[in-house]
Design a protein that fits this description.
By secondary structure, this protein is α+β, with helices and mostly antiparallel strands. It is built from 16 helices and twelve strands.
Length: 510
Amino acid sequence: MSAPSTPAGHATSPGAHWINRFAQLPARFHTRLQAQGLPDPHWVITSDDCAALLGWPTDWWQAAAPAEQASALAVFSGQTRWPGMDPLATVYSGHQFGHWAGQLGDGRALWLGELQGPEGPLELQLKGAGRTPYSRMGDGRAVLRSSLREFLASEAMHHLGIPTTRALCLTGSALPVRRERVETAAVLTRVAPSFLRFGHFEHFCHHGQHDDLRTLLDFVLQHLMPGCRARPDPALAVLEEVTRLSADLVAQWQAVGFCHGVLNTDNMSLLGLTLDYGPFGFLDGYDPQHICNHSDERGRYAYAAQPNIVWWNLHALAQALLPLVGSGQGEETDILALQEVLGRFAPHFQARTQALWRAKLGLRQAEEEDATLVSDWLALLAAERVDFTIAHRRLSAYDPAEPSTLTPLRDLFVAPQGLHAWAQRLADRVAREGLPGPQRLAAMRACNPKYVLRNHLAELAIRDAEVGDFGFLQRLHQVLRRPFEEQPEHEALAGFPPDWAGQLCVSCSS
């Protein structure tokens, strides 16, 4: 949170700019209702970067509201709303852990409305503002612990250059909420061009509501993917676009060692955004089979499995779109057309992955041996569980023209013989490209982050925040805004995780 930069009294609710396009869909798509506000709320943290997307000043959260408007704290803790907001919860269904889960919906999320921002429309959504008709057995609340993790992750992923929903602010309250233990409540405000999920299409297809399915597709074509409208088969075109976006997204996750943890179809964004941060984590020691979700007993969503799971989820979306493809009768030619589109996932993912890994190794030109060079490097890391982020950052300092620059990387290995042999192969490869060392290393540092949101860092912020101290949270937030910079004053936040970090456990309630 930042100090005021404009005079108090600045209007924070540009009501004339609320466009609320999704709210104009029929009632079958959503339920209008009011939030259940937090009692005696307080600010926890805000994001100036996210506020700028909305065209709001940095002091929006503390500026005095006009007499006829509620304060920002009251609005974003769910106590009331500004003119122009149209709160609602949307209905969707989906597959969870590979099984059809039936109707789901926004069980603890409440769509506030859609603003016309400086760069385009953006939806705002409260998470944790009470029960909705889709809460099932839940209380509709969110706890400070999980909300703080999602706030930090949303903003950290954005600054890593990875598509994601954003976090505008986090409010808290002493209201008790029971999870594994009694915790305090919080409300997170999320921002995105759209919160539509694969599960929205799955819901209407499963219930045979093909007219509503068509209405939803038309909404997407008109507002989110207008380039697909003129294609011979718009539904196929949408699937093709979602396939491309999803392949790009998971390739970027793999390149930074990000594990989502619960890649159900209802957690997959139609726009290829990282959505619903729950039991996520960044790799510490490199283990391709790492499972970040304690609830994932069989490892369905392990790090190495993520590309195949995203592909599986795309098949579920394709099945939901089948009634809108071609003849609309699910004929064999329609199925084959969908399969052809899905078949483009693997080559697109591979091409994107290879490009990302070439950049991480400081290479510009593609060569046939690149895939082997990368796989052998990852095998070296896996053999000794070398820290993923630190290894890549130290690799970004290795200049084959200066052999001593390999030493910090070598020190990560107990048995460095394999590293020496691999480093010579990399040196030969670098020499063929002829890029000057300083230029190459600068490019590597720009894609190999020094700072990521490790679980133990989030845990430290949580422990302080739970006793009302938000200082470390704000410091960590600022550091994660510049993940590729050295920031020597924050060096400790780029270090190895402490021993106790191995005991941390995150699950679907996180």
